[in-house]
Amino acid sequence: MADTMASIIFYILAIIIVVAAWGIIYCKNLVHSALSMTLCFIAIAGLYALMQADFLAAVQIMIYAGTVVILIALGIMMTRRISMDRTNMPERRYMIWTALITGGLFTCLGIIFIEYPLASVNVKPEGNTVDAIAQLLLGKYMLSFEIAAVLLLAAMIGAVVLAKGADE
Amino acid sequence: MTDSLLSMILLAPIVAVVLLLFIPPTAKKSIKLIAAMATGISLLMTIYVYINYDNNLGGMQFMQSIPWISDLGVAYTVGVDGISLPMLFLTNIIGFAAVFSSWNINERPKEFFILLLILLTGVMGTFIAGDLFIFLLCYELVVIPIYIMVIIWGSTKRVSKEYAGMKLTIYLLIGSAFMLVGIVALYLQAFPAGMRTFSIAALSQAHLLGTLSQSFQIIVFLLLLIGFGTLLSMFPFHTWSPDGYAGAPTAVSMIHAGVLKKIGGYGLIRLGLLVLPAGAKFWAPIIIVLALGNVIYAAYVAIVQKDLKYVIGYSSVSHMGYVLLGFAALNTISLTGAIANMVAHGIMSALFFAMIGYVYEKTHKRSIDKLRGLAHQMPRIAVGFMLAGMSSVGLPGLIGFMPEYTIFLGLFKVYPFLAIIAVSGIVFTAIYILRVLQKILFGPRNYGFDAIPDAKGPEMVPLFVLGSVLILFGIFPQLLLGMINGTIAPLQSFLQALNNEPSLLVVWGGIW
Amino acid sequence: MELFALNHAWLIPLVPAAAFIIIGLFFKEFHQLSAGIAVLAGTFSFIMSAAVVMAVLDAGISVEMPFIQKIQWIKIAGMHFSMGVMIDPLSAMMLVVVSLVALLVEIYSIGYMKGDKGYGRFFAYISLFSASMLGLNIAVNFLQMYVFWELVGLCSYLLIGFYYYRISAREAAKKAFITTRIGDFGLLIGILSLQMVFGTVDFMELRHILPVYIAANGTGLLTIIGILLFIGPIGKSGQFPLHVWLPDAMEGPAPVSALIHAATMVVAGVYLVARSYFLFAQLPELLHLIAWLGAFTAFFAASIAITQREIKRILAYSTISQLGYMMMALGVGSLTASMFHLLTHAFFKSLLFLGAGAVMHAINEEADIFKMGGLRKKMPLVFVTMTIGVLAISGLPPFAGFFSKDEILAAAAAVSMPLYIIGTITAFMTAFYMARLLFVVFWGKEQHGHVHKTSYFMQIPLAVLSILAAFAGAAGYVGGFGDWVRFGEAMPEHMNIGLAGISTALSVAAIALAWHIYVSKKYLSDIIAQKMGFIYTVSFNKYYIDEFYAILCRIFIDGIGKIMYFIDLYIIDGIVNTMAALTVYCSRIFSKLQTGQIQTYVAIFFCGVIILLVYTIVFFTKINELAAGGGF
Amino acid sequence: MHVGLTQVLILSALLFCIGLYGILVKRNLFAILMCIEIMLNAVNINFAAFNYFLPMPDLSGQVMMIFSITVAAAEVAVGLAIIFKIYHDFKTVNIDKINNMKG
User: Fold this and answer.
1) How many domains would you assign to chain A?
2) What is the ipTM of this complex?
3) What is the pLDDT of residue A119?
4) CA-CA distance, C290 to C307, in Å (whole number)?
5) Are residues C522 and C586 in the same domain?
6) Of B232, B241, B243, whose CA–CA distance to B163 is shortest?
C-alpha cells in the first residue's frame, strides 16, 4: 500500500465503512439498517482486496453481503411487523454511558496502536492467493477445517431445531 | 491373587452398579439381590483378608500399586494395616447390613442401591487408599450420594430433610475444603519439586527429613483437624450429625454414623499423627478439651431428646469424644483404644439405626413419648435395641467395653484428672440409653401396635450380623485389639519421641 | 478327684452360661425344658463347687496359697489381662453359697413362675446371672471382677424389669442400673488407677507388690484409690447413700429378690472388699470410714424397715442393714466375721424372701403385711420356715445369725465402743421389725378365705434353706470357719459370753415388745406412730431420700440437659444458621447485579477491558522506560 | 498520507467500537445481531491487516479469517433461530422485555 492511489482508495473505503456502520445504528428503520450493513460489508470486501486477500474479498461478499444480510432481512420479515418504522430505536437512557465506554475503549486502543506501532513489512508476493489458502486449509489446518465443517453442520441442525421447536 | 484382593473388594460394588444400570427399575427383587450379593462378596473377601493378615508382621499388607499420574506423583495404591483393616471390615459389615435394612425400600430402589453402592465404594477406598490423592478422590465421592439420598429418601421431623441434607453436605464440604488446603500444602512442602508424591507412606517419612518445620506442621495439622474434626463431629462442629441422621434414611444413617464418621478419626491418625506428629502433639490439649465437651455435653443433650434418632445422633457425638480422647492422649494404648472404639461404635450405632429404621417403618413413629412397650409385639427388635444399648453403655462382654477401657487407661497415664471426667461419661451414657430403652421397649402393652409384625426374613440379617459381631468382639476383644496393636505397638518409639515436642500447654505457659 | 475339680473349676460359670445361650436361642418357648436345663446346669455348678470346697479342704489351699489357673484375654503393648480361676477358701465359700442358693431358687421358681409367659426367659436370665456371679467369685484380677460385676448388674437390671409391662418395674430396673453405675464409675477409676500405679490389676501380683510400694511411698495415693474402689461396693451393696435402688428392686419376682438382691449379687460389694482386703487392710483411715459407713447404713436402714408396710420392702431394708453389718465387720478388721455373716445371711435372707414370695403367691400378690394376717394355720410349712428365718436374723441361739452377728459385734467392740453400741441397737431393731413382720403376717385376724396351695417345688427349697439357716452358723462355728476363711492370722474361736448374752437378751426383748404391740395389742401401733409423729413420718418416707434424689436429678440432669440443648439449638446451631442466612442475604444483594440484560453484562465486561488496557498502557510505559534507562 | 498497519488497526478499532456502541444502545435483537457482525468484521480486518503487513511467510491469517467467517455464519444461523424462538415465546424482540434471568 505504498503508493498514493492505494492510500486514497483506503481512505475512501474507510469512510464508507465507518459511515455505513454508523448508519446501521443511526437508522430508525431496521430494513435501512440491513441495507446499510450490506454496504458496509461490501466496502470491507474492498478493503480485503486492497490487502491482497482477494479470495477473502469474494468470500466476504458471498457470505456476509449475500447470505448473512439475506438471512437477517428474512428474519426481519418473519417477525411480521406491519411497519418497519421506528423498529430500531436506540435507548436514550444508556447513550451517555455507552458513549463513554466505547469512547474510552477506542481511546485506549488508539493510544496503544499509535504509541507502539508495529513494523509494516510486506514480504508476500503479489498474485493469486487461492492456491496458497487451499494448501493451508487441506494441509496444515486440515483438522480445524473439518471441525469447522462439523460446527456448521451442528449450527444448521441447531438452527433448524431451535427455529422449529423440538417438541412440535 | 492376594495383590489384587483389595482392588477386587473395591470393585465388587462397582461391578454391581454397572449391572444395576441394565436392570429395569421394576425388577425390585433382583436389584436388591444384586446389591446384597455385591456387598456380601466384598464382606467375604474382607473377612478373608482379616483372617490372613499377619498381626506379628504388622504394617501394610496386601499392597497393590499402579502408577497413575506420574508427573504429580499419584499412584493407585491400596493396602491395609492394623488401622485400616478393622475399618474396612467395619465398612463391609455395615454395608452388608445396610442393604438388608433397606430391603423394604420401594421408592426408586434402583437409584437408591446404586447410590448406596457408590457410597460404600467411596468409603472403602478412603480406608484402604495408600495414596493421598486416591484418599481425597474417594472421600469426595462419598459426600454427594449422601446428599441425594437424604433429599430423596429422607424423612422430615424436627427439621426438614432438605435442611438436614444441606447442613450435612455443607458441613462436610467446608471441612473437606480445609482438609484440601492442608493436604495441598503438605504435598508441596514435603518434598522438593520433581520428587513430589502423594504416597502416604512417603509423606509419613517427610517429618524425619526435616522438610516439615514445626510451625508448618502446627498450621497444617490445624487445617486437618478442622476438616477431620468436622467429619468426626468434634465439638463444636457437631450439630450436623444429629440433624443429618434424623433426616437421613436408615441405610445412610447406618453408614454415616457407622463408618463415614470414622474417616475423621482414621484421617487424624493416618495423616494427622503419622505425617504431622509435632502438629498433633501441639494441638493435643485442645483436642482433649473439645473431646470432653463431646463426651459430657453431647451426653447431656442426649438426655433431653425426644426423637429416637436424635438420641442416637448425640450419643454418637458423645462416643466420638472417646475416640478423640484416645487420639489426643498420644500413646499406644489409647490409640489402640481409639481405633477399636471406632469399630465398636460403628457396629453398635449401625445396629441402633437399623432397629430405629424398622420401628419407624412399621409404626411411623420415632418420638420416644409415643412409643411404648415394643417388647410385647417386637421382641426381636427389642433384643437388637438391648444389644446396641448395652454395648453403648459399655457393658463387658459386648464390643463397647474394652475399647473404652483401653482409652481410659491410655488417657489416665497422661491426664488422670481429665480421665476422671471422661469416665463419668459412662454414667451419663447409662442414663440416656436406659431412659430410651425402658421407655420405648417396656411398659404396658400398646394395643395400637398389635397388628405390626416383628422383624423377620431379610430384616433379621442386620440384627444377626451386627449382633454376632458385637458379641464376638466383646467376648474375644483380642481379635480386634491384637490386630490394631500389631500396627500401633511399633509406634512406641515414635510416640515417645513426641514427648520432646512442645504442646500448646507449654507454649501457653511460656506466654504467661 | 480334687485335682479334677480344681482343674475344671472354670466349668462352674461356663455351664450356666451355656444353659443361658441354649435356652435363650432355642428353648425359650419350651417352659419345662428350659427350667430343666437351668436346674441341670445349676446342679452341675453346685456339685462342682462342693467338690472344689472338698478339694480346698483336702489340698490345704489357703488364702495365701490359692489355686490359680488363667489364660490370656487381652495382650497389647503396655497392657494385658487374663481371665481365669482363683480358688482359695474365700472364693470356694462364695462358690458354694452362690451355686447352692441359685440352685434352690431355680427349683423354687419352677413352682413360683408357673404359668408366667416369660418362663423360659426367666430361667435364661437366672442362668446368666449364676454364670456371671460365679465368674465374679473366681476372678483372678480386678478387671475380670469388673467384667462380671457389670454382667451381674445387667442380670439384675433384666430381672428387676422382668415384669416389663409394669411401669414401676421398668423404672425400678432403670434406677437400679443407673445407681449401681455411679458406683461402677468409682470402681472403674479405682481399677484404672491401680493399673496405672502398679501396672497390673492381678490380685496375687498386687498382693506382692503392695507392701513394697507402701514401704517406699506411703499410703496417701493408695487411700484415694481405695476410696474410689470402695465406691463400687457402695453402689452394689446398697450402702448409704446409694442404697435407694435396692428397695425398688423388689419389683422383680420374689425368687430374684431372694437370689440376687439378698443372697448373692448385693454381697458382691462385700466380697470385693474382702477379695482386695490385702489392699484395704493397709489403709486404716479407709477401714475406719468403711466401718462407720457400714454401721450407719445398718442403723439407718433398720430405722426405715421398722415402719414399712410392704413385706418385701421390709426385707429389702433389712438386707441393706445386714450388708451394713458386713461392711462394718470388714471395717473393724474382721474379714472372717464378715464372710461368716455373709454365709449365714445368704441362707436366712433368701429363706425369708422365698417365704415372703410363697406368702404373696398364695394371696394374689398382696404385698402389704397389714392385709395378710392369720396365715399361720393355712401355710404351716411356710410359717415354720419363716419363723426359723426370723429367729436366725434376730440372732437368737442356736440359729445361724446368732454366731455370725455375735462375731461381728465382738469384733466391733474390740475396736470401738460406739460402733458396738450402734451395732447392738441395730440388732435390737432388727429383731423388732422382723418379729413385727412375722406376727402381723401369721397371727392376727384371717383376712383371706382362700389361699393358694404352695407347690412342692417351692416347699423343698424352703425346707432346705431353713435347715441351713438353723444350723449353718453352729456348723461353721464349730467347723473352724475362722481358721479357714480369714485374712492374716486365724481368728481364735472364742465366744464373748457377755456380749452374746447382751445381744440375745436384747433380741428377746425386741421380740417380746413386738408381740405385745402386734399380737396381744397391749400397745396399739397406731398410737405409737402418732406419738412418735415426726420420726414416724420421716422413717415411713425413707428420710425423703428418693424425693431428694429426684430433685437433684431434675436439676442436675434434666435441667442442665435442657440448658445444654438450648445452647446447642440456639447458640451453636444459631451461629451456623445465622451464617447460612447471612450467605443467603449476601447472595440476594449480589443477585441484584444480575439484571438479566446482556447489555449490562457487556458494558461491565468492557469496563473491565478498559481498566486492563489502561493498566497495560501505564505498565508498558514503565517497562519501556526501564528498558530505555537500562533497568533490565 | 502513508497507509500502514496503524491506520488499518485504528479503522478496525473504530468499527469495533461502533459495533459495541450499537450492542449497548440498541433494544432490537436483530440490530444487536447486526452489530455483533460488525464487530466480527472488525476483527477480520485485523486478521487481514496482520497477514498483509507483518512478516509472515504464508497465508495463515487469511485461513483464520475463513474460520472466523465460518463461525460467524454459524452464529448468525443459530442466533436467528434463537431470536425466532424468543419471538415465538415472548411475542417481542425487545431485549428489555426479556429478562427472566433477572436476579
Assistant:
1) 2
2) 0.76
3) 65
4) 27
5) no
6) B243
**How far apart are the C-alpha atoms of C143 and C73, rounded to whole Å?**
11
Specify whether C479 is located in the same domain as C606: no
Which amino acid is it at C280?
F
Check A101 against C606: CB less than 8 A apart: yes
Least confident of A82-91, B220-229, B383-392: A82-91
- Greatest CA separation found in chain B? 73
Give the range of the structural domain holding residue D28, as residue numbers without chain letter.
5-90
pLDDT grade for B109, boundaries at 50, 70 and 90: confident
Asked whether residue D103 is domain-assigned, the answer is no
pLDDT tens digit sequence for B295-306: 988 888 888 888
CB contact under 8 A, A105 and C614: no
Q: Considering the domain boundaries, does residue C120 fall inside one?
A: no
Put simply, whether the predicted model's pTM sits higher than 0.80 gets the answer yes
SS3 of C419-484: HHHHHHHHHHHHHHHHHHHHHHHHCCCCCCCCCCCCCHHHHHHHHHHHHHHHHHHHHHHHCCHHHH
- Domain of residue B502 covers 4-508
Nearest-angstrom CA–CA distance, B95 and C231: 42
Considering its fold, how many domains does chain D have in total? Answer: 1
Instruction: Give the span between the Cα atoms of C147 and C153, in whole angstroms.
Output: 10
- Picking from B236, B409, B484, the nearest residue to C79 by CB comes out as B409
Structural domain total, chain B: 1
Per-residue pLDDT of A11-54, as tens digits, reads 999 999 999 999 988 888 888 888 888 899 999 999 998 888 88
The answer to whether the Cβ–Cβ distance between B442 and C170 falls below 8 Å is: yes
C473 and C266 Cβ atoms separated by less than 8 Å = no
CB within 8 Å: A112 and C610: no
Residue A59 DSSP symbol: H
Q: Does residue C47 lie within any of the structural domains?
A: no
Q: Compute the mean pLDDT over every residue in chain B, rounded to the nearest whole number.
A: 87
Q: Is C597 on the interface with A (CB under 8 A)?
A: no
Peptide bond into C398 cis (omega under 30): yes
* Residues A88 and A153 grouped into a single domain: no
Contact B430 C178 (CB under 8 A): yes
| Distances, alpha carbon B414 to alpha carbons B211, B410, C335, C466, in Å | 29, 7, 36, 55
> Are residues C476 and C97 in contact, defined by beta-carbon separation less than 8 angstroms?
no
Nearest CA to C285 out of C224, C229, C217, C240 is that of: C224
C605 to chain D, closest Cα gap in Å: 11
> Are A160 and A81 part of one and the same domain?
no
Residue of A nearest to D43 (CA): A44
The enclosing domain of D74 has a CATH number of 1.10.287.3510
In angstroms, rounded to a whole number, what is the distance separating the alpha carbons of residues B52 and C581?
Answer: 53
Touch test A–C: 3 Cβ pairs or more under 8 Å: yes
CB D31 within 8 A of CB D68: no
Taking contacts as CB-CB distances below 8 angstroms, the residues of chain D near A87 are 28
Which residues of chain A neighbour D32 with C-beta distances below 8 Å? none
How far is residue B286's CA from residue B504's CA, in Å, rounded to a whole number? 8
* C503 and C631 fall within a common domain: no
pLDDT in tens, chain D (103 residues): 577 888 889 999 999 999 999 888 888 888 888 899 899 999 999 988 888 887 777 788 888 888 998 888 888 888 888 888 888 788 777 777 777 766 5
Q: Are residues C564 and C453 in the same domain?
A: no
Segments forming the whole domain that contains residue C631: 595-632
Interface contact flag, C164 B442, Cβ < 8 Å:
yes
Mutation to test the C interface, candidates B238, B243, B301, B371, most C Cβ within 10 Å = B301
Q: Is D100 at the interface with chain C, CB within 8 A?
A: yes
Amino acid code (one letter) for C622: K
pLDDT tens digits, one per residue of B426-445: 888 888 898 888 888 888 88
On whether both C476 and C615 belong to a single domain, the answer is no
